[in-house]
Automatic annotation (TrEMBL):
NCBIfam families: pepN_proteo
Species whose genome carries this gene: Methylomonas rosea
Protein name, per record: Aminopeptidase N
Alphabetical list of Gene3D superfamilies matching this protein: 2.60.40.1840, 3.30.2010.30, Neutral Protease Domain 2, Peptidase M1, alanyl aminopeptidase, C-terminal domain, tricorn interacting facor f3 domain
Gene (name only): pepN
Record-linked InterPro entries: Aminopeptidase_N-like_N, Aminopeptidase_N-like_N_sf, PepN_Ig-like_sf, Peptidase_M1, Peptidase_M1_dom, Peptidase_M1_pepN, Peptidase_M1_pepN_C, Peptidase_M1_pepN_C_sf
Length: 875
């Protein structure tokens, strides 16, 4: 397969000003007629008279230029392109192509496909070429007019981008609808939907007083699960006006929820298509975190209307331009809607456990990659989450007002254009009169930088000297790294826990941002009569690993007193990390395990002091995840990590039993599950306590869990109780699982949870359960959500069993990857990543994982998607 390089970018040879699309819809035989208004691009250097249009898996019916049908000698039809030998060079011309496609056979879910009985599309990144031949690249922007024709009973609802401009009836129970999108857009933002859908409607009045119709389309049985999505959409529209001054531009905003979807959702202009998972919610079917994710994703896709659609990407290497920025925007939005402290911790936790692993492995790449074989493989945690961190650092460096000024200039300067990450940084620079040359390296350098910090206190001079060294480990094709510009937020704490003033340029401040730019730098702070405790990298001000010697007591002090909510949580995490690693050492040496009293005291204080935000308190009680701990180990010892962490959890439960129980009882209510901060916090804290208590394996706790499971009136509580039951030796385990299944068999998204819960269980026999579930009638390889809920969950969220020493987990995963390879390459390649980190394990496991990767690479008819991930993992 071919590699595409950023350095080879050239402007398109032709422009397509307008496209008129006609679809005659049918499950197996859809006829597409596409009328393209083309002209040569004056900016193109190329002088050939040929036109290359991209298209895959299409059946050509006819092609005509300016009304004349082309003969076979006038074009070449290849697997991936249609080349017309000669087209007019000196004037605009028109091409009409007719082709057919088979949506039912499309299990890859790219282009036009069938989901349940509904026809829908996914065009990002390169799905449009599976609909018709086109200049399928984001820098070709066209005005779209689309007419859909279909059977009235099967497809009563016919949707596409923009505004509805006509409709009518035809013979044989057929009808048509025409749509026109006034905004030129790249074809990856095209969408159509046809099906038997119900519409939930509302309205939003914009800041300039325009009335926007809001419509959410779902299958009939889901009409009662749209309220939260609709409210989230209105919240997002208001928030973008207030925070960025950005107003919606069309008169209509539509969202369609589909069961079969590779991604979370898609920001098609005026017609978002969503995975049902990120739309549907009712208190009894969706958990609090589902509610949060829905609001976040609805916001994300809405925010794309500016950061992505009005200003789009020049080429796919610039993906982070729209994704990193939009993730940053949705993170800000969610933080403002719920709790900024909690949201920040959740985001950093996800970044550190998952993106850091990607950045440290064979698939590491900069947020603006330089090469790809299959662009779908670059919708990564790095492009999205690290990309958002890079935008966040810009926000930190420029301040909220400066950042806003820069964004205003960016949108104003580039409205209607397809641009680059460089254009974004330039706009921020120009608006603020600063230069960000060194900062730009974040776009081109991969790997997680390491900051190593040492401190020296000079009592006589009353000075503190902080020395910060930065380094960054080698990553594929980047053995040596240049120094980055890293903003490091700092606070100092006096012995009583209060803020010690930081003297800097003559004035004193409670917090400052250090600009770390060199390989080694020393920062000095004066007028400190006593040695302060340093609180560094507040708010996780940069996506780096911080190395700094800390005693357990110092961490316990910070956990109690740090005014920075992130660093307070972080102190607790690092305290637990140190304690757990001492236990891992003991396990590896065969010594008896003992829990450090300091962590018991620290947790007791947390249990006794709510401080008001119960969600935050629950986070303070959460031990670092196994995957985070793995990231800190040179050779990952899955069993020791699990055993040590379980030991801490169980011992804390034993020693703080009364406190956990008391909190549980205090916050346990039988509530229907409204999504308000108070109720969410209560549930979160109470269920954290239940999770600890369930480690006690006693009849009393079994009873509490079962009671909560059967009486719960909201999914958060029901699922938390079931999880406590499934991850223990609870006598009613099988009965509870069965009863849950029977209760929710009609709700696909709830059944996904049922699969995941079993696939991620740490109890023995989980692998056998997973194999049995593969044969369960509700399992389906063609439904991405279901595949992720079982195969994805087992291989990516159950380290203990997936990494079984005999290699059964690896063999199983490779079997599934090969089965998925032909059905759905995008999903297949996502599953391969479970094997990518093979170098991090002991020799035995390395060999077994490698063997499966080699088996995958050696398979015939491997998709580009799977080939790229598997071969790069081995490299
Ligand atoms: N739909 C995906 C997202 O919004 C790709 N654009 O991130
Ligand atoms: Zn996005």
């Amino acid at each position: 397969p071919q590699t595409v390089f950023l350095k080879d970018y050239t402007p398109p040879e032709y422009l397509i000003e307008q496209i008129e699309l006609n679809f005659d819809l049918d499950e197996q035989h859809t006829l597409v007629r596409s009328t393209l208004s083309l002209r040569r691009n004056p900016q193109s250097q190329d002088s050939s008279a040929a036109l290359t249009l991209l298209g895959e898996e299409l059946q050509l019916v006819s092609i005509a230029i300016d009304g004349r049908l082309l003969m076979q000698s006038q074009y070449v039809l290849g697997e991936e392109a249609l080349v017309v030998h000669e087209v007019p060079q000196d004037r605009p011309f028109q091409i009409v192509i007719e082709n057919t496609i088979n949506p039912q056979a499309n299990t890859a879910l790219e282009g036009l496909y069938l989901s349940s009985s509904m026809l829908c599309t996914q065009c990002e990144a390169q799905g449009f070429r599976k609909i018709t031949w086109f200049l399928d690249r984001p820098d070709v922007m066209s005005r779209f007019k689309t007419t859909l024709t279909g059977d009235k009973s099967k497809y009563p609802v016919l949707l596409s981008n923009g505004n509805k401009v006509g409709e009518g009836e035809l013979e044989n129970n057929r009808h048509w609808v025409s749509w026109e999108d006034p905004f030129a857009k790249p074809c990856y933002l095209f969408a159509l939907v046809a099906g038997q859908l119900e519409c939930v409607a509302d309205e939003f009045v914009t800041m300039s007083g325009r009335r926007i119709a809001l419509e959410i389309f779902v299958e009939k049985h889901n009409v009662d699960k749209c309220d939260h999505a609709m409210q989230s959409l209105k919240n997002a529209m208001r928030w973008d006006e207030e925070t960025y001054g950005l107003e919606y531009d069309l008169d209509l905003y539509m969202i369609v929820a589909v069961d079969h979807f590779n991604m979370g959702a898609m920001e098609n202009k005026g017609l978002n298509v969503f995975n049902t998972k990120f739309v549907l919610a009712r208190p009894d079917t969706a958990t609090d975190s589902d509610y949060e994710h829905i609001e976040g994703v609805i916001g994300h896709e809405y925010f794309h209307n500016w950061s992505g659609n009005r200003v789009t990407c020049r080429d796919w290497f610039q993906l982070s331009l729209k994704e990193g920025f939009t993730v940053f925007r949705d993170q800000q939005f969610s933080g403002d809607r719920t709790s900024p402290a909690v949201k920040r911790i959740e985001d950093v936790n996800a970044l550190r456990t998952r993106q850091f692993a990607e950045d440290a492995g064979p698939l590491a790449h900069p947020i603006r990659p330089e090469a790809y074989i299959e662009i779908n493989n670059f919708y990564t945690l790095t492009v999205y989450e690290k990309g958002a961190e890079v935008v966040r650092m810009l926000h930190t460096l420029l301040g909220a007002a400066g950042f806003r000024k820069g964004c205003d200039l960016y949108f104003q300067r580039h409205d209607g254009q397809a641009v680059t990450c460089e254009d974004f940084v330039k706009a921020l620079e120009d608006a603020n009169g600063v230069e960000l040359n060194q900062f730009r390296r974040w776009y081109s350098q991969a790997g997680t930088p390491v900051l190593t910090v040492s401190q020296q206190y000079d009592a006589e001079a009353q000075q503190l000297h902080l020395t910060i060294q930065q380094s960054c480990p080698p990553t594929p094709n980047q053995p040596v790294k240049a120094s980055l510009h890293i903003p490091v937020k700092l606070g100092l704490l006096a012995a009583d826990g209060s803020a010690a003033p930081i003297y800097c340029n003559g004035s004193s401040q409670a917090e400052i941002t250090l600009n770390v730019t060199e390989a080694e730098q020393t920062f000095s702070f004066a007028k400190l009569p006593q040695q302060p405790v340093v609180s560094l990298l507040r708010g996780f001000s940069a996506p780096v690993t911080l190395k700094m010697e800390r005693s357990l007591d110092e961490l316990a002090f910070l956990l109690r007193h740090d005014s920075d909510t992130f660093n307070r949580w972080e102190a607790g995490q690092q305290l637990a990390v140190q304690v757990i690693f001492k236990l891992i050492d003991a396990i590896e040496l065969g010594r008896p395990l003992q829990l450090e009293p300091v962590i018991v005291d620290a947790y007791r204080s947390v249990l006794l002091d709510s401080g008001g935000d119960l969600s935050y308190q629950a986070l303070l009680l959460a031990l670092p995840e196994e995957s985070y701990l793995s990231g800190q180990m040179a050779i990952i010892d899955v069993e020791a990590i699990h055993q040590a962490r379980e030991f801490v959890k169980k011992t804390l439960a034993e020693q703080l039993q009364a406190e956990f129980k008391q909190l549980y009882v205090q916050h346990h209510r039988d509530e229907s599950g409204s999504f308000d901060a108070g109720a969410v916090g209560r549930r979160r804290l109470k269920n954290a306590c239940l999770s600890y208590l369930s480690k006690l394996e006693n009849a009393d706790v079994y009873h509490i869990a079962e009671q909560q499971f059967y009486s719960a009136r909201n999914m958060t509580d029901q699922l938390a109780a079931l999880s406590a039951i499934v991850n223990s030796n609870h006598p009613a385990k099988a009965r509870s699982l069965d009863s849950f299944y029977v209760q929710w068999r009609q709700e696909a998204l709830v059944i996904d949870k049922w699969f995941t819960l079993q696939a991620t269980s740490s109890m023995p026999n989980t692998f056998a359960t997973v194999q049995a579930l593969m044969k369960h009638p509700a399992f389906d390889m063609k439904t991405p959500n279901r595949v992720r809920s079982l195969i994805g969950a087992f291989s990516q969220a159950n380290p203990l069993h997936f990494h079984a020493q005999n290699g059964e987990g690896y063999r199983f995963l490779a079997d599934q990857v090969l089965a998925l390879n032909t059905l759905n390459p995008q999903i297949a390649s996502r599953m391969v990543t479970g094997l990518a980190q093979w170098r991090r394990y002991d020799a035995g496991r390395q060999g077994l994982m490698k063997q499966q990767l080699q088996r995958i690479v050696a398979t015939e008819h491997l998709s580009k998607d799977v080939y790229e991930i598997a071969s790069k993992s081995l490299a």
